[in-house]
């Protein structure tokens, strides 16, 4: 499971409970997950599940309720907004964001770190062109269905929309799959709230991301370090402003959280100077 999940989970715990809950969680996971985990690292799924159990016991809140609250928080908090900016920038409504999450999960599973994000399938139930009513089948051996429910609600809040979620069946109650009937109610389109400066920065970031995807090799053995990539980009962009390391690292992190790039960051002896990056092949049918 991505370190982004763990770092966001710690933020959620710190903001919703007293300090003793976060301390008990950290003590329970000592040796498995470092305090203040880095977003780009990968940790064992079992560590998160055990931490969830500890928090549930400490607070008296059912695990699925915690997951639903956290799923909502995960979509709306600033840390996710920063690291997942490449994905979030491609959507303009809650429905499209939820469907893009599915694409991102499939893509991340193709990387070298053994990630197994939950996959969900869907069927449109709307009889009109809006495709606003959808039946989701959510498959997760870890029973993280509450997280999905909360993420749908968080996506609606992000775009100031309404959403109605009806749980039809759940694996935690003995069903073979979790089914959700979801009705999205999108707002009338409005102008972007970005200032001209924000839009200019966003467009420059998107251009750099596209260029990085073009330059990076497709095989791990040919991966490039941060400094090699910076040199290559500055050679190609000789007539433009030089690419700064901080700017490039931010873009690399965003592309990794979209499942489009891989690195050896989780290998022994990793350092920023020696870490190598390469492209992850696009999953069949991905955009």
TrEMBL record:
Superkingdom, natural source: Bacteria
Annotated signal peptide: none
Family annotation (Pfam families): HNOB (PF07700)
Database matches in SUPFAM superfamilies: Ligand-binding domain in the NO signalling and Golgi transport
Domain 4-vinyl reductase 4VR: 124-184
Record-level Gene Ontology MF annotations: heme binding
Entries under InterPro entries matching the protein: H-NOX_domain_sf, Heme_NO-bd, NO_sig/Golgi_transp_ligand-bd, V4R
Descriptive protein name: Heme-NO-binding protein
Annotated source species: Thermosporothrix hazakensis
């Amino acid at each position: 499971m991505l370190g982004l999940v763990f770092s966001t989970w710690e933020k959620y715990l710190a903001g919703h409970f007293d300090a003793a809950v976060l301390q008990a969680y950290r003590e329970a996971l000592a040796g498995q997950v470092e305090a203040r985990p880095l977003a780009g690292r990968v940790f064992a799924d079992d560590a998160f599940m055990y931490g969830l159990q500890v928090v549930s016991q400490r607070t008296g809140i059912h695990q699925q309720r915690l997951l639903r609250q956290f799923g909502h928080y995960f979509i709306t908090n600033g840390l996710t907004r920063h690291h997942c900016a490449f994905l979030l920038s491609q959507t303009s409504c809650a429905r499209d964001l939820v469907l893009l999450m599915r694409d991102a999960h499939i893509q991340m599973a193709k990387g070298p770190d053994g990630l197994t994000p939950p996959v969900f399938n869907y069927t449109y139930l709307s009889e009109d062109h809006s495709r606003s009513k959808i039946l989701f089948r959510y498959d997760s051996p870890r029973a993280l269905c509450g997280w999905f429910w909360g993420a749908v609600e968080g996506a609606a809040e992000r775009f100031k929309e309404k959403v109605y979620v009806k749980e039809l069946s759940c694996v935690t109650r003995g069903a073979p799959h979790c089914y959700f009937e979801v009705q999205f109610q999108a707002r009338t389109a409005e102008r972007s709230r970005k200032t001209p400066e924000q839009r200019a920065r966003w467009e420059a970031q998107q251009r750099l991301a596209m260029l990085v995807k073009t330059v990076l090799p497709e095989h791990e053995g040919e991966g490039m370090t941060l400094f090699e990539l910076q040199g290559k980009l500055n050679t190609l962009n000789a007539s433009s402003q030089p690419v700064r390391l901080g700017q490039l690292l931010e873009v690399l992190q965003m592309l990794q959280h979209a499942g489009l790039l891989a690195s050896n960051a989780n290998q022994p002896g990793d350092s920023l100077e020696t870490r190598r990056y390469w492209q992850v092949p696009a999953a069949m049918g991905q955009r």
